[in-house]
Amino acid sequence: MFEPVVTVRDANIYQGDNLVLSDVSFTIERGEFVYLVGKTGTGKSSLLKTLYGELSLKEGDATVAGYNLRDMNWKKVPFLRRNLGVVFQDFQLLTDRNVNENLRFVLKATGWKDEKLIEEKIADVLGKVGLKSKGFKMTFELSGGEQQRIDIARALLNSPKLILADEPTGNLDPETSDEIMQLLVSICKDYGTSIIMATHDFMVISKYPSRMLKTERGKVFDSAVAEV
Ligand SMILES: Nc1ncnc2c1ncn2[C@@H]1O[C@H](COP(=O)(O)OP(=O)(O)OP(=O)(O)O)[C@@H](O)[C@H]1O
């Protein structure tokens, strides 16, 4: 059966008691690449945090990768997260271990037990991000662009239907940003993964134009519905 990866209907997004975004409604289909733009402090991260279960949804409805977020029991959040990949601006890799161990850590934490399958999966995701030979490097030995690729490899471990990326090119020079964008766009195309990417980087958007959700004055505007 045909099913969108994200459906949000009349959702109100809060930070504590503060209403950050109201009446949010949009749908994202499989394989769609969607930018999330808007001035600083307008609610991009709050929306992403709601979609990955860090902020709870108390008003309105949302379904992400088949999980209903409304009043979701916190015990279900890890299961939601297994179906998502999350990529951050600051990589958030563990600095006291090498690349393979970083990836193994996530697989173990998400229930993988078979060592052979774990090794195959690690080789698979490192191949997808073009860093097959870097498994034994400590993360601090990698460049910023390489660290971001490892962060993306980590997001791919559980073959997610959706990747949420919060300013993944924010700390990178223009050339490296471009390489990361090519990688994200190809993941979207080749594997049908949907991607929502928060960004302030209009160079990137003009080179890789795609649908935009814009946070402004407490609302989300959708370029699929009207010009933003
Ligand atoms: N942990 C928090 N507790 C309370 N309020 C918060 C928290 N995090 C963010 N906010 C508030 O929520 C609003 C939206 O912030 P948010 O971080 O979602 O914006 P953003 O668009 O992602 O900004 P940026 O582009 O700077 O990352 C802001 O008014 C911010 O001050």
Automatic annotation (TrEMBL):
<keyword id="KW-0132">Cell division</keyword>
<dbReference type="Pfam" id="PF00005">
    <property type="entry name" value="ABC_tran"/>
</dbReference>
<dbReference type="InterPro" id="IPR027417">
    <property type="entry name" value="P-loop_NTPase"/>
</dbReference>
<dbReference type="InterPro" id="IPR003593">
    <property type="entry name" value="AAA+_ATPase"/>
</dbReference>
<dbReference type="GO" id="GO:0016887">
    <property type="term" value="F:ATP hydrolysis activity"/>
</dbReference>
<keyword id="KW-0131">Cell cycle</keyword>
<dbReference type="InterPro" id="IPR017871">
    <property type="entry name" value="ABC_transporter-like_CS"/>
</dbReference>
<dbReference type="GO" id="GO:0005524">
    <property type="term" value="F:ATP binding"/>
</dbReference>
<keyword id="KW-0067">ATP-binding</keyword>
<comment type="function">
    <text>Part of the ABC transporter FtsEX involved in cellular division. Important for assembly or stability of the septal ring.</text>
</comment>
<dbReference type="InterPro" id="IPR015854">
    <property type="entry name" value="ABC_transpr_LolD-like"/>
</dbReference>
<dbReference type="GO" id="GO:0051301">
    <property type="term" value="P:cell division"/>
</dbReference>
<feature type="domain" description="ABC transporter">
    <location>
        <begin position="6"/>
        <end position="228"/>
    </location>
</feature>
<dbReference type="GO" id="GO:0022857">
    <property type="term" value="F:transmembrane transporter activity"/>
</dbReference>
<protein>
    <recommendedName>
        <fullName>Cell division ATP-binding protein FtsE</fullName>
    </recommendedName>
</protein>
<dbReference type="InterPro" id="IPR003439">
    <property type="entry name" value="ABC_transporter-like_ATP-bd"/>
</dbReference>
<keyword id="KW-0547">Nucleotide-binding</keyword>
<dbReference type="GO" id="GO:0005886">
    <property type="term" value="C:plasma membrane"/>
</dbReference>
<comment type="similarity">
    <text>Belongs to the ABC transporter superfamily.</text>
</comment>
